[in-house]
Amino acid sequence: MKRGPLVMMMLDSLADAYVRRGDAPFFSSLIPGGRYADIESLFAFEGIMAAVITGREPDETGVFARFAYGPSGSVMRRNPLRVLNFINRHAYYADGERRDGRQNFPLVKAVRKVLKKYWISGGFNNLTPYGRLPLALAHQFRYSMVLGAYDRTLQLNGFETLFGRATREGRGGLFHYGRLADARARLERTPDLDSHALVFLHTWSHLDTRGHDLGPESDELRAMTRDCDAELSEFLPWLQARLPDASFILFADHGMHPVTKTIDVGAHVRAAIDGRGPLVFVDSTAVRAWGSADDLSALGEDISGREGVSVLSEDDLRGRRAYFPGGEYGQLFAAADPGYVFAPDYFVGYEPRKGMHGYFRDTQWLRPSLLWFGPAFETGPAGFTPRVMTDIWKLAVHAMDAREGNSR
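The structure assignment produced for this chain is given below.
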């Protein structure tokens, strides 16, 4: 039997807790017609999507976080904005914005305006809006994976992706990132939509963004979740009418935990900017560092003594499938417990966080939702209960009617 397309929808930040407390009534109404699981998220950042599309863990794909150590591959190594360090090297970031609440220096405003208008490619635009690094450090980091090009990512580290599998079968895949209204407009302009083996939509990112600001327990975020769910209640029936033979996998990549405490590591950031001590990268719920054994030992001793912090051993990292012998993602990993965040986070500075997705310890707040239904799942996979993020790949492979296993 020739199966219709597989539609995968990543509903960013839709925690199982949101579903259980009734904040997504339309999504919940789909559960009786399919199968539902709350699964465990993955100890990774950008590596979650890589795991979903390959079925492999971060230590296999080589994708863990958005930024890795690699001066020779840094998109910022020749960026002229770096000369602005002499103005205020602590406050200007790789996107040229001030993050301390004051107005930009006029020269920076002028440079930003010119670059945004005329510099179409290169480090400046490649680092916005997805990350802000102190200019003194930005040239030491490279991307581990470029966002928004998954349908052109046919292999990762030798592993075939779902899009590669679809292309190999001659049917192809489509990836769209953004709001559902924009996705609908694009899909309406795709006349051969039913010829695709895979349609992958990543949406609801605004729910994730606002979840950090508002916190998952807030009335405002609960209302926003219901609005997203209402939007889904209009979009999904339209897509099902357009693709009547399609099967669906709806999932989240993580949940959102209430934040109650901040761990200030600003002294270590300032030292790194001044060229003292280890190079550090602060990623909300993780501090990653590179340096001499003595420097790393001193850093680990300091932050491991803080409430809500664990410095992860090699065995810990191996157990979480996030050990990288080359140290590209960190020679030292420190993880914050759920409810804690590090500051200044390189993505938001010292802005207060009321919610944070975390990947270091499983709680009900952090467990993502997973729902699958449609013709491809009317038979098999028999007795299969997804438990972790990589199991989503197994569901997708079944729905695409491809061989089990992954080629290297």
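Interim note for the steering committee: The domain at 6-62+146-257+373-399 is CATH 3.40.720.10 (Alkaline Phosphatase, subunit A). The longest helix spans residues 219-242.
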